[in-house]
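Priority: medium. Attachment 1 of 2:
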């Protein structure tokens, strides 16, 4: 069967998001398991099943199917972004960063990869790298000029918060330094 246009699969992505939000995640998992059986050579089948599992809080199973997709050389940006998200949930932070970087390298329109890195750096309290990533988000958004001004302000707000956190960390270190 010939691969359908990406919009077809992105609609399925929205279907998964909607049904998991209303507590029908198990239904989605079953549906996309069947889809993978019907289309085992379609990388979108792996992605959609992995997404359904991930959104249904079955991160380990999601990771298993992502790995199977990678074994078939399906290294698509969508799969790489999801791999990063799953790794983050599994607390495999370094791996998450690697996958998000790969996704962005393959498709620089995947600004989500930059956001994900910025948020993870914040989570692990690596504020300098978080600020660097928020700067990249700002650059990306200015280059693509598809945002309203208030949306462009958000990364600046995040950077101000990070600067405060860095200043706080520096103050804590100064206070701990023996005289």
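Attachment 2 of 2:
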């Amino acid at each position: 069967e010939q691969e359908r246009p990406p919009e077809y699969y992105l609609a399925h992505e929205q279907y998964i998001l909607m049904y998991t939000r209303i507590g029908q995640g198990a239904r989605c998992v079953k549906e996309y398991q069947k889809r993978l059986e019907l289309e085992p050579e379609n990388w979108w089948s792996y992605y959609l099943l992995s997404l359904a599992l991930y959104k249904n809080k079955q991160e380990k199973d999601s990771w298993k199917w992502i790995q199977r997709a990678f074994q078939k050389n399906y290294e698509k940006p969508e799969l790489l972004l999801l791999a990063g998200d799953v790794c983050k949930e599994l607390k495999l932070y370094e791996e998450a960063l690697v996958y998000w970087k790969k996704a962005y390298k393959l498709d620089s329109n995947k600004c989500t990869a930059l956001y994900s890195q910025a948020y993870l750096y914040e989570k692990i309290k690596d504020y300098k790298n978080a600020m660097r990533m928020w700067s990249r988000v700002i650059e990306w958004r200015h280059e693509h000029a598809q945002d309203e001004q208030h949306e462009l302000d958000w990364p600046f707000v995040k950077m101000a918060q990070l600067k405060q956190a860095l200043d706080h960390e520096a103050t804590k270190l100064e206070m701990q330094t023996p005289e």
